[in-house]
Amino acid sequence: MCDDDIHQGLVHDPSVSRRTFGLMAAALTGVVTVAHADDTVEEKDVEVKTPDGVADAALFYPKAKGKYPAVLVWPDIMSLRPVFRDMGRRLAAAGYVVLVPNLYYRVRKAPVIEGTFNFANPDDRAKLMTLRPSVTPAGTVKDAQAYIAFLDAQPKTDKSKKVGTQGYCMGGPLAFYTAGAVPGRIGAVATFHGGGLVTADADSPHLLIPKTHADYLIEIADNDDQKEPDTKDKLKAAFAEAKRLAQVEVFAGCNHGWTVKGSQVYNETGAERAWSNLLALYKKALG
After folding, report:
1. What is the pLDDT of residues 126-176, one digit of tens each?
2. In this structure, are residues 155 and 42 in contact, taking their beta carbons and an 8 Å threshold?
3. Which has the higher per-residue pLDDT, 6 or 278?
4. All domains of the chain in start order, with CATH
């Protein structure tokens, strides 16, 4: 997963009050409708039952008639918050049923961080470090299976299509674990400035590649590549050996976190190019 020292400075997420994110009693449906300005996309706060509890998450889908491929979005270390809701909404507007879960549901509901967060501040970092141990490879496998089953149960989901999954920062490995957990359903995997995709551990995410049946898009931050220049080569070799289609790219001049608005290193040009690559992947692999 992501090392603390590769994060850059301040992150500001325009705050939406906790009451907006809070889940009300959902009775048997497990969903609560949330109003917003986009009249082409439906947004709901949802509760997803997992083997370890009940995960709070956000669900997005087009209001237009029809069925659409599903996508599971794994957020970065700061988890589900307004900027990732914006991403979910934008992806749904492009024609997908999108689920964005709270990484830390086992210990705290989203948003786990509100307002401005400074990675240079030890007190701020400590807030996340108490949450991160709740996210494990084994737990992610169980979560992924539950989330994909939840997406497949949505009326708007076209189950004849494969599912996509994308991850940011520490969400990158989670996308790989998802492809390994539900190989028959996952048709596309994308990671953006993902940390820990290749490790020396027995559960390294890249070791799952042969088990999967997905096409891959791996977008690497410039400073991440400078720190671990052999990661891209190891990934390319693993994809080639497994005969998996993959685009592995280092974004020159774009640092860790460049795709997430509110980050001090957000790069709009680079973020939009990465988004275009994502949509191209999904159009090809999911239909």
Report:
1. 888 899 999 999 999 999 999 999 999 999 999 999 999 999 999 999 999
2. no
3. 278
4. 4-285 (3.40.50.1820)
Structure confidence by residue, pLDDT tens digits, 36-70: 457 899 999 999 999 999 999 999 999 999 999 99
Q: How far is CA 140 from CA 70, 121, 127, 171, in A?
A: 18, 28, 21, 10
Name the residue type at position 25: A
Q: Which residues contact 104 (CB under 8 A, 6 or more apart)?
A: 79, 110, 112, 131, 134, 135
pTM of this structure: 0.89
